[in-house]
Structure formats: structure tokens, C-alpha cells
């Protein structure tokens, strides 16, 4: 039950979720974040352990997610909204638009800011942050901090995150 979700598998599960919403005659919206975006949009990694998202209508989508989990022998939280405490206003773009489900993703600068704010040890965060820094063509720690501070107050950035970002640029001499 603790399987990784590949790009193809995430799309498959989202399509199943869309069909579940159709059986309930409901239209939903999801915005995905984290590893799922790194897999689906940027192909920066082969898989993720879950799909971090916010969604509406919340209770109906939770029920549909549970049904998809049961059908596929997945954890009930394969799609979850545990990250909602990190969210602030940001731009999104459409990834999939189906009859009963629209799936959005954040712009890469917002994803970078979120990843930096979370920057958890023993996760793919470091690789994701490095990928996004290169994607956005950022050349200095200050440019990364400017993006973070575009979304989050400076006092929310942990000292460990500041050191981590400084270290990335000290160790990256390309």
C-alpha cells in the first residue's frame, strides 16, 4: 500500500477521480503542489509518495479520493490537503480540464517558494529546489530569497532554510 505514484499513475488516478465526480454529478477543482507537480509538469523525478493539493468541493472530493483509494488499494491520503497551512495567494495555470474536474498547478516561482519554506530533510526537497532554481535561471541566493519574500514574510523563513540556500550557491560553481 505504500507505493510511489509515477507520472502516468497520477494522471490515471486523477482521471478516475474525475469519473467519480461524474457519478456524483459534481464538478470539482484541484490545485496540485509538491512532488506531483515535479513529476507531471517538469518530469524532474519519476515518482512521488502522494499528491499534495487543495480542492473544492472539499467533502465530495474527499469521498471520491477515498473511493479511488479503495479501488486501487492505495492509502486514503494518496491525495491530501495537509499543505494548506503553507498556502498564500498565488497564480495558477490549468494542467487538465475535463468535464467534471479541472486540475491546476502553481507557477514555478511559487512552487520554489513553498519548497524552500518547507525544505524538509530526508525528502526530495533539495533536488526539487535545485531543479527549480535552474529552471528559473536564478544565479544568487538573494534572487531566491526575493522570490520567497514575494509570497511569505521574511520571519517565516527558518534560519536552516537560509543556510541551505546559501550553501546551494556556494557548492554550485557551474
Mean pLDDT: 92
Strand content is 15-25%
Instruction: State the order of secondary-structure elements, H for helix, E for strand.
Output: EHEHEEHEEEHHHH
For the biggest sheet, the summary is:
5 strands, mixed
The assigned structural class equals: alpha/beta
Number of domains as seen in the coordinates: 2
Inertia-based shape: elongated
Helix content: 40-55%
Tell me about this structure:
With 174 residues, this protein is α/β, with parallel strands linked by helices. The protein has two domains: 5-106, no CATH class; 109-171. The protein has seven helices and seven strands; from the N terminus they run βαβαββαβββαααα. The strands form two sheets. It has a five-stranded mixed sheet with strand order 5-4-2-7-6. Strand 4 (51-56), helix 3 and strand 5 (79-80) form a beta-alpha-beta unit. Helix 4 (108-118) packs antiparallel against helix 5. The longest helix is centred in the N-terminal third of the chain and has 17 residues, at 7-23. The protein is elongated.
Give a quick set of tags describing it.
alpha/beta, two-stranded antiparallel sheet, single chain, 174 residues, 2 domains, five-stranded mixed β-sheet
Question: Which helices and strands, and how do they pair?
Answer:
Blueprint: E1 5-6, H1 7-23, E2 28-33, H2 34-40, E3 47-48, E4 51-56, H3 58-72, E5 79-80, E6 92-97, E7 101-106, H4 108-118, H5 125-135, H6 141-151, H7 159-171
Parallel strand pairs: 2-7, 4-5
Antiparallel strand pairs: 1-3, 2-4, 6-7
Helix pairs in contact: 1-3, 4-5, 4-6
What's the quick description here?
This protein is α/β, with parallel strands linked by helices and 174 residues long. The chain is built from seven helices and seven strands. The radius of gyration is 17 Å and the shape is elongated.
